[in-house]
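Quick one: co-fold with glutamine.
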Amino acid sequence: MPATASRLSVFTESVIRGTTRLANQHGAINLSQGFPDFDPPEELLKALEKATRGPFHQYAVTWGAPRFREALARKIQRFSGLPIDPDRHLVTTCGSTEAMMVAMMTACNPGDKVVVFSPFYENYAADAILSGAEPIYVPLHPPDFGFVLEDLVKAFEQKPKAIIVCNPSNPTGKVFTREELLTILRLAEEHDAFVITDEPYEHIVYAPHEHVHFAALPGAFERTITCNSLSKTYSITGWRLGYVQAAPEVIAQARKVHDFLTVGAAAPLQEAAVAGLELPDSYYHELQALYARKKEVFLEHLRATGLPFTEPQGAYYVMLDISPMGFKDDTEASERFIKEAGVAGVAGSSFFREPVHHLIRFHFAKKEETLHAAGERLRKYTSGKM
Ligand code: GLN
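Sure, here it is.
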């Protein structure tokens, strides 16, 4: 049998998606892969029903159905102030996952270097390898997961083609401040690098923290490739709708990558999602309040375990320090949490470049009753082990 491509031997299947499969096998409450167990807004469900009876069952325009891109441009402008042209600045993709792959393949030549903060969302390493780029890792330091300027300067001295910034950040929950983002921008300008941002949690931020749209920083638009998704904002992770937003010259190239990768995102879902993009500002305020409540419910349970963790500033993940529990490592801990406690979380090492094996990432995008049930199980299990 012929050998498969050697680039595939240097990374594993997603630990996040693998943990979900194990959780399902054992009937555990799944707080590993980040997705809600509640429905999207009623407006989207109604629009979806209607879309099934409309003329939306064949390919949409490759780079995104016009009505979807128009609604998306208006929504982006409403929150970032950027005058987005739906025909020149956007490509609709299958989730931010495809958007990131498109961004990397659009920005990087094989052999180019890309700065990645560690811990990082596990897709970025695979994106880099698949696009032939080589990651340079810059550590983020708890408790607020900031970077050391000197580390970033050194990374940029290696002449990277791009830096990846996940903001709000998965898995750390960090929300980068305007000052931090301006520092990144200044270095990217000095070294003529792209800034590839991944911002699916833009609307899930806890006061007093605020989301800053990187592309809207003064002078940033030309070098920013923004990747985003509707998954988390409208609780539709299974719809696989995302987008790349960038300068027209970049989008012209990104369209080609996207076209040959997937042709397009699902036409009826793009049509239905317009209803989400047109929701009023109050929807986003309620979403913030909803997640702030979920965070409090879940963190209250985690506090009761006595185990250390860092409170997230945004997104819906929290990394629990399980070192006092005496497991061999986080992989064993994650498996035993699933099998013995009935709660699934992701082994933290899958997010780190450094050998970090004492963290489990849980998410709290679940109904309050699910969070209480999981919290009770975690409290019981951890107290029996310490
Ligand atoms: N972003 C989610 C997580 O970190 C999952 C995304 C995915 O599986 N595509 O769990």
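If it helps, The first strand starts at residue 29 and ends at 30.
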